[in-house]
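Q: Structure tokens for this one, please.
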Amino acid sequence: MSSESSSTQTYRIPGEPGIWVFLLGDMVIFTVCFGAFLVARAEDRELFSSSRHTLGLTIGLTNTVVLLVSSMLVVLGLGAIRVDARRVAARMFAAAAACGLLFAVLKIVEYSHLIGAGHGPEANSYYNYFFILTGMHLFHLLVGVAVLAALTAHARREVEFTGTRRVVFEAGACFWHLVDLLWMMLFPLLYLVG
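A: Here is the predicted structure, written as tokens:
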């Protein structure tokens, strides 16, 4: 008589419930801001359209690719943590943090060009929203870079990454993916939609 053994695998949400409450709250705040932007755009389509055309797509597209690559690196780092490949994980998190810093530098260059051309936050309501929304995102990105730096340092420690310690990496990865997701909504909203 043969008996089949079935193994049940339990699935769980990565990170801990607290990080998901925080991420959801953050997304609600950004959704309200996106809504306010869309209402303002509907009230003055011509101004928003002409202002949008002053933006160059090069930096926006480059930053999009940079963030997509950084998210892939975070996924690889988290995978390395799960198989206890600490050095690989540390390199992946450090590379993702470097991508975040590159994004920040490019955003500052873009801000400088816009302000130099007279398109600062005070120029009109489009630029006001542009600087508020991208500034909020940049703040989140810089926090995310700090989180990735902490994950890099933590990955180098000689401890076993199970249970609570693994949750820290998952929570940090979830936050970084939020940064990426927010940009994936901001980029078309500010740079592409007419």
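A few notes: The two ends are 69 Å apart (CA to CA). The CA atoms of residues 113 and 135 lie 15 Å apart.
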